[in-house]
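Researcher: If only I could read backbone structure tokens as easily as an amino acid sequence. Walk me, if you will, through where the backbone shape changes along the chain. I have put the entry right below:
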Amino acid sequence: TWLSATLTAIVQGHKQSQIHELLPWNYAVTV
């Protein structure tokens, strides 16, 4: 889900300057 992917990215050190990539409307579902 978007939330688990976002939290995982944050924990793994996703840059705050790229936080827009984690917003739900920018989230691409990976299959």
Observations:
- The CA atoms of residues 20 and 26 lie 7 Å apart.
- The first helix runs from residue 2 to 11.
- The chain has a mean pLDDT of 76.
